[in-house]
Amino acid sequence: MTLEELQDVCLQLSMPKFTAKQIAQWMYDKHVHSIDEMTNLSKANREKLDSLFCVGSAAPIETNRSKDGTMKYLFPTEDGQFVETVYIPDSDRATLCVSCQVGCKMNCQFCQTGKQGWHGNLTVRDILNQIYTVNQLGAEEGLTPLSNIVYMGQGEPLDNFDNVLKSIQILTADYGWAWSPRRITVSTVGLKTTMRRLLDESECHVAVSLHSPIPEQRLQLMPAEKQFTISDIVALLKEYDWSHQRRITFEYTMFGGTNDSTLHAKELLKLLQGLDCRVNLIRWHRVPDVPLKEVSMTTMEHFRDYLNNHGITTTIRASRGQDIWAACGLLSTSSRTERISENKKTSSQTL
Ligand code: SF4
Question: Do 210 and 68 share a domain, yes or no?
Fold first, then answer.
């Protein structure tokens, strides 16, 4: 809960307003696992809270470790489903790729999560639990602490925007975890209904899934193009200032013989002209039953060099965790979801 929500709870339970700050401190600073540990609250107030709420975290039920050090965790959700979270260490930094939905509605042609379909939104607690728990487990195992969070796991963040935004608020607020928003990136296909809210109501970095500068082809790869075209997305982004600390990146997954030509590079340059941005090229890994081809590293390097030589900073993202199906576009919990579809929803509320 945000501080405002905690204040509402205190009001409803006839507790002083300042109790909300104390509760936030116990949860987000001291990370207690029971309300009874909140010892500066009166016993009566602790009992009131305890009868209605619970605090704490949920451990992953499965962990896979890649030979390159990447870890993939399978977390249970509040409504009895599962999501995957990927921890990516890189010398003295570590990035956590967080999920925000079980499956995804966007149905991008090349993505394993898209094939799974949509099975529900994660709650704020489900989202924050991934971050808190991985950091705790990492500390116990001597792993590099998290330096960055990317909302790039399963699901489309703008399709569960209220919960994603609330999780970012708690991550970045002084009463919460006090992270800089510059350590957080939200990745999106670009949804008309919530894109402007992301830009106005958060200060974190933004990554837009582009994948083709040619509208007809982007539509084939990503049905979301129909609702909000890439030209409209770029036009909206041009209304904002990206020249300071906030960053806009375009993600470009490359498919052999599909979107890797010089024509594509030229169209990209035209599309992004006048926007202070960078491009991140992503290597696609084969997904069963998808008629796309992988691309060679040489082709990716040529594409990168062409864009760099024409003024757009372009990098190739290192592919991590492929051997444990943790690389971009490979996350899926469909077999789990089918097995537990009869699970009952939990009835307890959480703070
Ligand atoms: S690429 Fe992202 S938005 Fe598209 S289907 Fe996969 S998870 Fe959803």
Answer: yes
For residue 351, being part of any structural domain is answered with no
With CA atoms as reference, report the closest residue to 71 among 135, 123, 129: 135
Are 121 and 236 found together in one domain? yes
pTM (two decimals): 0.92
CA distances from 246 to 138, 239, 276, 278 (A): 28, 14, 10, 12
User: pLDDT band for position 350 (50/70/90)?
Assistant: very low
Q: Write down the pLDDT at residue 321.
A: 79
Q: Does 29 share its domain with 131?
A: no
Residue span of the structural domain in which 49 resides: 3-55
Q: Are 350 and 125 in contact (CB under 8 A)?
A: yes
Number of folded domains that form the chain = 2
User: 114-128: per-residue pLDDT in tens?
Assistant: 888 999 999 999 999
The mean pLDDT of 72-88, rounded to a whole number, is 95
What average pLDDT does this structure show over 285-294? 90
The catalytically annotated residue of 84, 156, 225, 251 is: 84
Specify the residue with its C-alpha closest to ligand 1, atom 4.
108
User: For residues 180 and 170, what is the distance between their CA atoms, to the nearest angstrom?
Assistant: 11
Asked whether residue 234 falls in the same domain as residue 176, the answer is: yes
Let me know whether 330 and 195 are in one domain.
Answer: yes
Residue 224 beta carbon below 6 angstroms from any ligand 1 atom: no
279 lines ligand 1 (CB under 6 A): no
Reference 328, options 204, 93, 150; nearest CA is 150
Is residue 314, in this structure, part of any structural domain at all?
yes
The best mutation among 99, 111, 251 to test binding of ligand 1, ranked by most ligand atoms within 8 Å of the C-beta, falls on 111
pLDDT for residue 326 is more than 80 = no
Task: Please check whether residue 165 lies inside any domain of the structure.
Answer: yes
In a domain, 264, yes or no: yes
